[in-house]
Amino acid sequence: MILELTGSGEAFLLARVLFGVILTFMGLNHLTNAEDMIGYSQAKGIPAAGVLVPATGFQLLAGGLGIAIGAFPVVAAGAIAVFLLVATPTMHDFWAVPEDQQQSEMTNFLKNVALLGGALAFLALGSVEWPYAVGVGLF
To answer: Is 1 within a domain?
Structure first.
């Protein structure tokens, strides 16, 4: 173990829960507003949007829950990172939209970049013992 989280377990738990709940909500939003999300994805030129939107909804849901509860953290954080690496430039291409949409797309792009940073941090910490975790899949 290279890094030890002693003394900051509660802060790390709060970070996990906050981060995971946001991603879980995003996944639920993909699933409950699938028609709108599919239409938006189709407008962005995403192939098989009818399959990919629900699939990414479950990916976000599982990844967010995994991070929040500390189950399979490498898989969970990796799933989130992959989603964000693909979705961010394809769905929020602020440089390629009309001027009246650029600010909104840039905001979503930057939000996703920040979330990607968090996912990568949790991925890097995947081999460390997580305090207050269910412990499934931890190394």
So the answer is: no
In order of 19, 40, 48, 64, 78, the CA distances from 33 in angstroms are 21, 11, 17, 18, 24
Residue 139 lies in a domain: no
Tens of pLDDT, residues 33-47: 999 999 999 999 999
What percent of the chain is helix, strand and coil (3-state, nearest 5)? 75, 0, 25
Predicted TM-score (pTM) of the model is 0.90
Is 2 a member of any domain?
no
**For residue 134, is it within any domain?**
no
Amino acid making up residue 9: G
Residue-number span of the structural domain to which 90 is assigned: 9-127
